[in-house]
């Protein structure tokens, strides 16, 4: 039974995770079921959009049924349906969106479309019940590296973004050339633990003075050039050293800019979000930098860093509380801006 809680059913299918979650009163996770496709895409070294869409179609109904069963409720107990409508892979988004719209129509329940980045930020509300805006958000994932000024639950201003590769994308590409496999983020994080982070001093790219934007394509090229030079010289490549050196160069820039943004906007809280938020060095260095500046740092558990429907349900709840609901013309937007 739902015990008079306001129940949100969240649905997420923006990339290669099919997820459904049941959320009570916006922040309490009653279930959060995720069907991952990592093993499916590992052989290709990255996500293949068409294959991802087919697996979403196969998984979506089972994932929703399991989420409802785990929460101990039925569809008639659901008060609101929230779904990711962008950004992401258009075919993948459409599977979740069509399912959510069908359920909302059949059940006569309100429908709320959620921006994927807003979902990642909202994961912190689930993890930290006391957290409320305003704060600075740092969203670091495979598709995004954004510094976001969160002034209220549904009011955001992007202060900095990547101009080329997102951090997670750079991790994947470097992991590939190092022969570590896919997904690159956790594999580089693990390899770096036994490497020398100062074996190679890759260039830290800060762009123009006071810029909060990011650029990671240069360091990716720097790694490739270093590996080619070693190969030409006949030198042995220490994969762990390269992984550690690359990771440190990327994360030092991310940390510096996040703290700079918080100080510039006079924010005393930073919320870390996105898949790369699970990176152990990022958490460590950002915590140290925040402690030095008197800034409180929040970040979700690893399961809430990955793409999941609990964060989408939470974000949908806060949109609905402000009267934001969508009609059945809601569409998928693969390049949706925040």
> Helix segment count?
11
CATH topology of the largest domain: Nucleotidyltransferase, domain 5
Structural class: alpha/beta
Nearest-angstrom radius of gyration? 20 Å
Structure description:
There is one protein chain. The model has no long low-confidence stretch (mean pLDDT 95). It is built from eleven helices and ten strands. The chain folds into two domains: 134 residues, ATPase, nucleotide binding domain (Nucleotidyltransferase, domain 5, 2-Layer Sandwich); 168 residues, Nucleotidyltransferase, domain 5, CATH 3.30.420. With 338 residues, it is of the alpha/beta class. The longest helix is centred in the last third of the chain and has 26 residues. 45% of the residues lie in helices and 19% in strands. The strands form two sheets. The chain has a five-stranded mixed beta sheet with strand order 3-2-1-4-5, with helices on both faces. Helix 5 packs antiparallel against helix 8 and helix 8 runs parallel beside helix 9.
């Amino acid at each position: 039974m739902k015990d008079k809680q306001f129940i949100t059913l969240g649905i997420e299918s923006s990339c290669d995770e099919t997820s459904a979650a049941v959320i009570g009163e916006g922040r309490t996770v009653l279930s959060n079921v995720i069907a991952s496709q990592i093993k499916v895409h590992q052989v290709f070294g990255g996500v293949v959009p068409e294959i991802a869409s087919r697996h979403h179609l196969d998984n979506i109904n089972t994932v929703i049924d399991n989420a409802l069963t785990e929460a101990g409720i039925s569809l008639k107990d659901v008060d609101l349906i929230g779904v990711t409508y962008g950004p992401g892979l258009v075919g993948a988004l459409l599977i979740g969106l069509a399912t959510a719209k069908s359920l909302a129509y059949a059940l006569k329940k309100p429908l709320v479309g959620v921006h994927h980045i807003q979902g990642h930020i909202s994961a912190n509300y689930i993890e930290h019940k006391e957290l409320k805006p305003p704060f600075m958000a740092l969203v670091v994932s495979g598709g995004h590296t954004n510094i976001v000024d969160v002034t209220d639950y549904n009011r955001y201003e992007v202060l900095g973004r990547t101009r080329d590769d997102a951090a997670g994308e750079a991790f994947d590409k470097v992991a590939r050339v190092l022969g570590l496999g896919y997904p690159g983020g956790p594999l580089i994080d693990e390899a770096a633990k036994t490497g020398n982070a100062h074996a190679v001093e890759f260039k830290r790219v800060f762009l123009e003075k006071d810029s909060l934007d990011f650029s990671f394509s240069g360091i990716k090229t720097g790694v490739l050039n270093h590996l080619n030079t070693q190969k030409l010289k006949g030198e042995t490549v220490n994969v762990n050293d390269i992984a550690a050196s690359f990771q440190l160069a990327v994360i030092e820039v991310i940390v510096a800019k996040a703290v700079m943004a918080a100080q510039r906007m006079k924010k005393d809280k930073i919320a870390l979000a996105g898949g790369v938020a699970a990176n152990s060095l990022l958490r460590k260095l950002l915590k140290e930098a925040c402690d030095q500046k008197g800034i409180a740092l929040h970040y979700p558990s690893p399961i809430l860093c990955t793409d999941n429907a609990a964060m989408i349900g939470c974000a949908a709840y806060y949109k609905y509380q402000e009267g934001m609901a969508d009609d059945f013309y809601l569409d998928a937007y693969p390049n949706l801006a925040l």
